[in-house]
Amino acid sequence: LKITLTPVKLKGAHQTGMVAVLEDVTEQEKLDRQRKDFVANVSHELRTPLTTIKSYLEALDDGAINEPELATRFLKVTRQEADRMTRLIQDLLQLSRLDAQKSKFAKKPVSVELMLEEAVDRFSFQCKQKNISLTLYIHERIPRVYADPDKLDQVLDNLISNAVKYTPDGGSVAVVAQEKADGMVEIGVADTGIGIPKKDLGRIFERFYRVDKARSRSMGGTGLGLSIAQQIVHGHQGEIEIDSVYKKGTLVSFTLPPVSGGNVHE
Ligand code: ADP
């Protein structure tokens, strides 16, 4: 709490008064701290791949370039790290557009069934490689949702890719859609993966928050996927939740508004 005292002299009065202004600085301080943390995180996340790239280039310079096998491996790492930086910058740009509400939502009626079928198809190859069974369950008569299809694709890609990423070979991932009692459409992505400890669950939607930074990085993660998904879902007046049992599996579900009035089931 910040208190500012300002002496005032009222017109015609002999006495000087005081005006006290009480300001709640805790909220401001919290925002300042978050902003500083964010900048520190971004710098760190960009510096890490740059350091790797630099050290591999130096190793090439120091002679590795003359050993074809080694050189090929080093170049591969260098390229992977550059790709990671590109992904990070894309995610950051997207978040900043969402923050500034510059990212327009081109909402229209969207068929949940089609959208989920396509999303699942995009991961079929990756799942086959990891021997993960990926199943889609759609309850009957799901209304169409009023949403931006491209943005929804991104939410689904982020959630399904997490589910696949954090599920060991041979596990399973399920995508489920149902209509809730209040009419909202709920989409859930469940996996039988490594799960998230209870103590981390409350912070998991924060930018750059990861349970295991090294693991997330080695899987190519930016730590921004869930934050982006949350922003997009909120932009649709929906809610997103995560529930998880450590070492057992995770369920992320979000809601979307149905198309209002008319032939909602078409
Ligand atoms: P990342 O790019 O690191 O995957 P996200 O924002 O998508 O970033 O997720 C944040 C963190 O939440 C991850 O680093 C991981 O620790 C945890 N997480 C997200 N989804 C899952 C999941 N399905 N199973 C286990 N952990 C998960």
TrEMBL record:
Source domain of life: Bacteria
Residue ranges of domain Histidine kinase in the record: 41-260
Location(s) in or outside the cell: Cell membrane
Protein name: histidine kinase
Organism whose genome encodes this protein: Thermoactinomyces daqus
Residues of the full protein shown: 335 to 600 of 600
